[in-house]
Amino acid sequence: PAGSVASVSLMIVPLPTMVIDYLLVLNITAGVLTLLAAMFVRRPLDFSIFTAYLLIATLFRLAMNIAVTRSVLLHAYAGEVVEAFGHIVVGGSVIVGFVIFLILISIQFVVITNGAGRVAEVAARCTLDAMPGKQMAIDADLAAGVLTDEEARVRRREIAAEADFYGAMDGASKFVKGDAIAAIVIVVVNMLGGIAIGIMQKGMGVVDAINTYTLLTIGDGLVSQIPALLLSMAAGLIVTRAATDADLGADIVSQFTRYKRVMLIGGASICGLGLFPGLPKIPFLLVGGIILLLAFRLPSDDEAAERAAAAAAEAAAAAEEMPSPDSPEALALEMRVDPL
């Protein structure tokens, strides 16, 4: 609550440039942590607070845009972070900075946000459609004695929480899309307003005003859109994440290295591309050699299949140990009496 009220206060109260620097770094840090958390969760419900956090983070980022804009227009300076992004990151070039900003906006708005929003919409619809079947399955397991009353209540709460989460993600994705549109409007308005203030009020030349305020505006846009891009990626990972027993990194490594033949053919193909005339040989041979080296250290496809079959057999054996619904043990459990 204090953070939300402080975010609204940033829109009203002028801030020193030192405070702006720390808040911008905090915004970038929060974006990095959010992306990492989205990669390490094993199922979407493990990060169920993401939808509300997305709204708070968007509000904070827009408040920081207003605070930086106020400082840029009043003092032609918004701290070392914005200046560094405006001069060092884009090389002090207005055109380069504007192109990079447009690329970031395009990646966020056209690619990630639209895709994540569509996936969230479909997931919410499928989850709601599957709720009656899941409820009936829980009731059947409860009647068969497979589940206790407490376990059935936990399962029902999980189903309801899953439906609420995907429904909220369907709406939360609109926050990210609106933030991308607002970023474009803010940059254009800041650039035009800064040039007008520099020429009319501060007595700058046209070229100086364009260079000064455009670089600061682009720096503000970059330093705010990088955390926005990280949040968009986190939202996409959350809605596309399938429930598994491991995090995203472990799943990627295990599933890419599951078949040795794939790694061998891929590494040989990359090395073969490096032998074509006109192509640089060292990058292709180096990358292909690393893939081949990793492939030789992997077990064969037959061994991997045997391990998968053994794991499936263990899971089937564990399932067979459970009493059948018609067995005396299951009926006794349903009647809450001792079979002996």
Description of the structure:
- The chain is built from 12 helices and no strands.
- The protein has 340 residues and is an all-alpha fold.
- Helix 3 runs parallel beside helix 6 (149-200), helix 4 packs across helix 7 and helix 5 packs parallel to helix 7.
- The chain is flat and about 80 Å long.
- It starts with a helix and ends in a 5-residue tail after the last helix.
- Residues 323-340 have low confidence and may be disordered.
Tell me the structural class.
mainly alpha
Mean pLDDT: 76
Helical content stands at over 70%
Biggest sheet record: none
N-to-C CA distance: 57 Å
Low-confidence stretches: 323-340
Shape: flat
Brief characterization of the structure:
The protein has 340 residues and is an all-alpha fold. It has twelve helices and no strands.
Considering the chains and any ligands shown, give keywords for the structure.
340 residues, mainly alpha, 12 helices, disordered C terminus
